[in-house]
Amino acid sequence: MPWAAPSYMGSLPTAPDEATATAEEPGAPNDTTLPVGIGFTTGPSALMVGGTLDFPIDKKITFGPSLQYAFDDDVTVASVSGQLKYFMPVMGDNSTFLPYFTGGIGVTSLDKEGRSGDSGAAINIGAGVRYLTGEHYRLGTEARLYLLPDELGGEHAFFAVELLQIVISF
Prior knowledge:
Elements: H1 18-22, E1 33-42, E2 46-52, E3 55-56, E4 61-71, E5 75-87, E6 97-112, E7 118-131, E8 137-152, E9 155-169
Antiparallel strand pairs: 1-2, 1-9, 2-4, 3-4, 4-5, 5-6, 6-7, 7-8, 8-9
C-alpha cells in the first residue's frame, strides 16, 4: 500500500449571528442620562443632593452640567460644574457593574455660619460605579474631591459623596 499524500483541511470563520453582532462592549450609556443622588460632604460637613445631565459624546465618554447642593444648620455649599466622565472597560462578560472616572471645572459658593458666602473656581476629580438594574433605570454611587484654588470660607478643599444615585435614561 503506497503512502498517501498529506491533505490539509481548514474552515473559514462563520459570520456572527445577529444576537452576537448587536452586542456591544459595555461603556458609556448610549442615551442621555440623569443621575440624581443624595449623600454628604465633609470639610465642611453637610447633607447633600446632586444631579448631573450626561450627554454621550463617545463610546466611553459623557459630558454635561452638574449641580450639587449641600446644607446644614450653619453651612451651605452650592457647586455648578461641567462634568466629564470616562467609563472603564469591564473585564469578562460580567457587565453588571460599570465603573467610571469623573472630573470637572466650575464654580462653588460656600457659606458658613450665616455670614456672606464666598464664591470661586472649583476643580473636582472623582470616581463612581453604576449597577445596571435595567434598560432605563440604574443605581449608582459617586465620590468627588473638590479643590478650591481660592480659599472659600477658610476651606481649600472638600469631599462630596453621593451614596445613592438613581440614574434615569431617556
